[in-house]
UniProtKB/TrEMBL annotation:
Membrane-topology annotation of the record: Single-pass type II membrane protein
Lineage: Eukaryota, Metazoa, Chordata, Craniata, Vertebrata
Organism: Jaculus jaculus
Family: Belongs to the peptidase S1 family.
Group of enzyme by EC: hydrolase
UniProt gene name: LOC101618229
Catalytic residues identified in the record: 227, 272, 368
Domain SEA residue range list: 46-163
UniProt protein name: Transmembrane protease serine
Length: 418
């Protein structure tokens, strides 16, 4: 009841300033509590890696499974990856499971072992041992109904670190930084390149000055172009450097041998391919490791995207640059490339064209010998071309012409054993 003229003993609490203060304090306390709650529920999460080896008994190990470039290797790996993904997505760990990737298929007896890494995300407050046993039991259950893959049921799950995961990947070919961490985020094109983005890129230097690009195909072999050595065949003048900067390289290694294709013809640019052997093998790490080589039979689809990387000049007649750059281009069919308004028949079957319609993205002088790479369905990168020639740089209808690596797959194996 409202009684005018009387002051209640409690009225000082209703002082509007005190009320406002109390409300503000309440809101602040509530906000902090909510923040803490959200933090512990959502942001206290950490990623965890696990390794497991699946012994597949009813798939016979053949040569076709010895390289990630074959369709057999891709198919089997994809089957295993999707089986694991399905098992976790149908389990109560679905919100914690992130990815599974077959790092390697190898022979055991007459069967195949798949080494798999799996990535999860859960709160630090979860008990690691109990998470591991939940993961193990879901995989165990999966094995009992693995369709037509017969898998040894005694598989062990081991908890591994991010560094272990990285080491597993860098021993194999073709993994870029995003795959090393099984990240969902893809590396998006910028023009300049971060350290480790193209870990197989090599700078071949003549008396310590960048001269040509190259690509690491094993720990001691670099694939490049034959024309780089036309005037300088002496390996003692050459070094290979690693890292995105040619002036502050991460590593510099002497060249032991240079093997250019014996049928390289400067007039037609036929067989513009060479391999160089490093004086000592490089130790692979996240920033330095090898690309995958395609199968001889792999067809390169016109219109599919590819990346060319190098320290070449930005305009025809310009100087090389000191920081590595990348360009996204698309494969162009040899017929289109050989049109009368284009190269008019100079592009031979062992060559490959790649560019963009405007011409504006292209390899140029100093990019020679460097790689043109493509990503496969499992996010592994393959070298499909070696920068070889072109009419100047960035000219419409005159895209970059590359040595078609698939045509030389057997030559590379003969020369290097890779
Ligand atoms: C060169 O002279 C060169 N636009 C390399 C690549 C291309 C042109 C010239 C392709 O080394």
């Amino acid at each position: 009841m409202y009684r005018p003229g009387r002051v209640s003993p409690y009225s000082r609490f209703l002082n509007p300033f005190a009320v406002a203060l109390a409300v503000i304090a309440g809101v602040v306390i509530l906000a902090v509590a909510t923040g803490l709650l959200i933090h512990f529920l959502a942001f206290d999460k950490k990623t965890y890696f696990y390794h497991s080896s699946f012994h597949i008994l009813n798939v016979r190990y053949t040569d076709a499974l010895s390289s990630p470039a074959t369709q057999e290797y891709r198919n089997l790996s994809e089957r295993i990856e999707s089986m694991i993904t399905r098992a976790f997505e149908e389990s109560d760990l679905r919100s914690h499971f992130l990815r599974a990737h077959v790092v390697k298929l190898r022979q055991e007896g007459s069967g195949v072992v798949a080494d798999v890494v799996m990535k999860f995300r859960y709160s630090r407050r979860n008990n690691g041992a109990s998470m591991k046993s939940r993961i193990q039991s879901i995989l165990q259950q999966m094995l009992s109904n693995s369709g037509n893959l017969e898998i040894n049921s005694s598989n062990e799950v081991t908890s591994i670190t991010g560094q272990d995961t990285e080491n597993l990947f860098t021993q194999e070919c073709g993994a870029r930084a995003d795959l090393l961490t099984l990240s969902e985020e893809r590396i998006l094109g910028g023009i300049l390149v971060d350290e480790g983005e193209w870990p197989w890129q090599v700078s071949l230097q003549l008396n310590n000055v960048h001269h040509c690009g190259g690509v690491l195909i094993s720990n001691s072999w670099v694939l490049t172009a034959a024309h780089c050595f036309r005037s300088y065949p002496n390996p003692q003048q050459w070094t290979a450097t690693f890292g995105t900067s040619t002036i502050y390289p991460r590593r510099r290694v002497r060249i032991r041998t240079i093997s250019a294709h014996r049928d390289y013809r400067p007039s037609t640019r036929e067989n513009d391919i060479a391999v160089v052997q490093l004086e000592r093998p490089v130790t692979f790490n996240r920033n330095i490791h090898r690309v995958c080589l395609p199968e001889a039979t792999q067809s390169i689809t016109p219109g599919s995207p590819a990346y060319v990387t190098g320290w070449g000049s930005l305009i025809y007649g310009g100087n090389s640059v000191s920081d590595l750059r990348q360009g996204q281009v698309r494969i162009i069919s040899t017929d289109v490339c050989n049109a009368p308004a284009g190269y008019g028949g100079s592009v031979l079957p062992e060559m490959l064209c790649a560019g963009v319609p405007s011409g504006a993205v292209d390899a140029c002088q100093g990019d020679s010998g460097g790689p043109l790479v493509q990503e496969d369905s499992r996010r592994l990168w393959f070298v499909v071309g070696i920068v070889s020639w072109g009419y100047q740089c960035g000219v419409p209808n005159h895209p970059g012409v590359y040595t078609r690596v698939t045509s030389y797959r057997d030559w590379i194996r003969q020369e290097t054993g890779v």
